[in-house]
Amino acid sequence: MSKSCDVLIVGGGVIGLCLAKEWHNRHPKASIIVIEKEPDVAAHSSGRNSGVLHAGFYYTADSLKAAFTREGNLAWHRFCEQHHIPINRCGKLVIATNEDDYQGLDELKRRGDRNGIPLEWINEKDAAEIDPNARVIDRALWSPSTSTVDPVAIMHHLKQQLIESGVNLVFNTRFICSKKNCVRTTNGTYDAGLVINAAGLYADKVARSFGFCAHHTLLPFKGLYIKTAAPIPGIRTNIYPVPNLKNPFLGVHFTLTSDGIAKIGPTAIPAFWRENYGGLNRFKLNELLEVVGWEAALFASNAFNFRSLALEEIKKYNTHYLIGLAAKMVHKLDRRAFSITSKPGIRAQLLDKRTKELVQDFVVQGDSNSVHVLNAVSPAFTCALPFTAWIVDQIEAGSIAS
């Protein structure tokens, strides 16, 4: 027999849980079911990300990312304080590693100013007071509102809140297909008044089952970090290079976790299938053929400089090389302290098949029956609370575009 509900959310990541939270807050009598293919929350991107609460100065002012990062940063700060979840208010330094980087720093400051982000120019002396080990030449950007949290702790707290509020979280339940708003899963069928797709790495496939996402596909990029076993005195803040603003990756950097552990990474290595975390785990031949086919085409055409990106990223499997990139940003580094490989993550990056370009912003498509959240990549965790509130606003106003 089919199960019925007012709202069915596909995907128990941070976007799915925040959508359920927002919908319940507005419509407490509505029946809400969240289906998740894993045994628990935080199995994929929402539990494998850096934990950085971004400030919001990387993104152009006309983007959804810019609209929600600053507000999301503040919202998670309030959430963590209210629920006694650890947060590390360590800030972030963005530094130049060569002369060409100063133009990039200037652009980041302009974007920060347009987006209303607290962002300060600091000199070498000021930088030394923040972190004397940071290698700052002439000037750097200081982001005091950047913090780090434990994303897994937040996800489990959200899960518990939803369960207590009456939202039905159904685990070990994978989406198979849909016929209108009748969704078939590995755990029976669901009839829903509204289906919201927040399926992360498989959001494009779910969307196509409803007739959306015809011109896009998700490409997986593997993010690896190496970290210290315990806090070390040599790193006091997040230290980032100036990114290439033509692509959505921020480059190898130092991250301080909520408990003070230092991490170097991440990589953005093209993966071969969607959950290609390591070895042949979760191997799917059809995904291999699809993903490698697209990667080969992008490599041949060198679209968005993919060939150079892929060749550079593959080098980062060598931990000595990876640490060497980070070492350029500090005066001294105990390489031996970075001895532990973190659980890898996969970035579900949307590709426009028509232009062969990576999509920079979040994408939301849908109609009155279904809504599909695509390209929910960094800073999606930071943005999750205001972004999902905006999605519900758009649904209620009938403004979701197909």
Short key terms for the protein model shown above:
11 helices; 25% strand; eight-stranded mixed sheet; alpha+beta; 402 residues
Q: How many DSSP E strands?
A: 23
How many helices? The count is 11
Distance between the termini: 31 Å
β-sheet strand percentage:
25-35%
Low-confidence blocks of residues: none
Structural class, judged by helices and strands? Answer: alpha+beta
Let me know the average pLDDT.
97
Shape: globular
Q: What is the radius of gyration computed over CA atoms, rounded to a whole number of angstroms? A: 21 Å
Helix content: 25-40%
**Largest pleated sheet:** 8 strands, mixed
Question: What can you tell me about this protein's structure?
Answer:
The chain is of the alpha+beta class. It has eleven helices and 23 strands. It has helices spanning 14-26, 45-48, 64-83, 101-114, 124-130, 151-165, 203-209, 285-301, 306-315, 319-327, 380-397, and strands spanning 3-10, 32-35, 52-53, 87-88, 92-95, 120-123, 139-143, 147-149, 168-170, 175-179, 182-185, 188-197, 216-223, 226-228, 238-241, 253-256, 262-265, 269-270, 338-341, 345-352, 357-358, 363-366, 370-374. The strands form five sheets. Strands 1, 2, 9, 10, 11, 12, 22 and 23 form an eight-stranded mixed sheet that branches. The chain has a four-stranded mixed sheet with strand order 6-7-5-15. Strands 18-13-20-21 form a four-stranded antiparallel sheet. The longest helix has 20 residues, at 64-83. The model has no long low-confidence stretch (mean pLDDT 97).
